[in-house]
Structure to design on (382 residues):
């Protein structure tokens, strides 16, 4: 069998964009993909320049994503999968067009701007039997995988309390008025959807809880707030969670917490042990068995388990994290894509990258948070 690289196209990620470049590094890291087509910007000049810099041939740099989907799906050497790295409001419209053409999808988060829209996409994904991945990149971190495996094995006992937080400070002032592209679209409900900080980073904290613990949310009570006058979306969210089975949790996400860059942190306490992990120091996981001293488990060391080592590239002590987290999702998807392309049997049982259902759940989370907050933080079932 002739194995070839997976042909990937990208929509979004033109010059001046942030996340597109991150995805391009991630998809190249393990050598499974070849970027061969793109519609990088609604501004054709930007798109052409971006494509040129990436070494794409002229006829595969497209003016619109619709044209790209149409032309690529008709080529014998067309793309196998599309990476969607645009602002949120375009995720589903683009994914639908490529999905209808039978092209697999890797999409940045959050999935959509409403759960109805997300469910419409799910129908296409299922009808066309497509592979769909949502890049909640923190699920790809080795120590997150280690913690997930420990929890599954019962190392901390049944879970009682979860504290997750994701504070940043970059929107402490009205950055959207100073021409900062990232701030502009992220604070615009037409492009970002109904959630500001809760959609951008609160969903990461929620997704991480679900990924690590597999606990199902029963109901939540939320208080979201906009501290910056004139800002159209929330910039701080405090959310209480009740899980099925009795565990309690809380999420705090904020973009006005001065002194925080990307300080995502999660602490999980069971009846016999506790776990703590911090994204800004991702090589270490802290595990405490009740009555025993806290253990520091190090990525890449003898203390790390198989689940962590499977997604580890470099020796302990070297920083490994953000880009590799994305790359781990791309690599997991590549195995499935490769089997699909080569018409081979594929065992999905070890795959744990976020999928369309996680995307729908993320949308439902945003909507429930906003509904609760509008109703004076009333408990709302999930």
């Amino acid at each position: 069998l002739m194995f070839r690289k997976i042909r990937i196209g990208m929509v979004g990620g033109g010059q001046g964009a942030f996340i597109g470049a991150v995805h391009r590094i991630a998809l190249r890291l393990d050598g499974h993909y070849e970027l061969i087509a793109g519609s990088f910007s609604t501004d054709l000049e930007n798109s052409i320049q971006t494509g040129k810099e990436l070494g794409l041939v002229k006829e595969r740099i497209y003016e619109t994503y619709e044209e790209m989907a149409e032309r690529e799906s008709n080529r014998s050497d067309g793309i196998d999968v599309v990476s969607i790295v645009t602002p949120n409001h375009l995720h589903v419209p683009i994914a639908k067009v490529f999905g209808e053409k039978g092209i697999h999808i890797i999409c940045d988060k959050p999935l959509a701007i409403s759960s109805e829209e997300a469910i419409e996409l799910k129908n296409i994904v299922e009808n066309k039997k497509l592979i769909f991945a949502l890049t909640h990149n923190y699920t790809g971190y080795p120590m997150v995988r280690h913690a997930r495996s420990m929890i599954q094995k019962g190392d901390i006992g049944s879970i009682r309390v979860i504290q997750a937080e994701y504070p940043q400070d970059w929107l402490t002032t009205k950055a959207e008025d100073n021409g900062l592209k990232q701030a502009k679209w992220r604070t615009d409900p037409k492009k970002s959807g109904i959630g500001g900080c809760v959609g951008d980073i609160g969903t990461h904290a929620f997704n991480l809880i679900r990924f690590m613990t597999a606990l199902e949310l029963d109901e939540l009570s939320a208080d979201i707030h906009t501290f910056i006058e004139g800002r159209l979306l929330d910039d701080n969210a405090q959310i209480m969670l009740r899980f099925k089975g009795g565990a309690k949790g809380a999420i705090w996400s904020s973009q006005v917490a001065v002194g925080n860059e990307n300080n995502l942190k999660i602490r999980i306490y069971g009846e016999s042990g506790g776990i703590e992990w911090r994204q800004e120091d991702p090589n270490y996981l802290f595990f405490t068995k009740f009555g025993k001293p806290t253990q520091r488990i190090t990525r890449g060391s003898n203390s790390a388990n198989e689940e962590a080592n499977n997604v580890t590239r470099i020796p302990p002590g070297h920083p490994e994290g953000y880009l590799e987290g994305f790359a781990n999702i791309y690599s997991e998807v590549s195995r499935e894509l490769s089997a699909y392309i080569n018409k081979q049997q594929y065992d999905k049982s070890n795959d744990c990258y976020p999928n369309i259902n996680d995307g729908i759940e993320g949308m439902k989370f945003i909507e429930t948070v906003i509904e609760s907050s509008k109703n004076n933080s009333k408990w709302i079932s999930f």
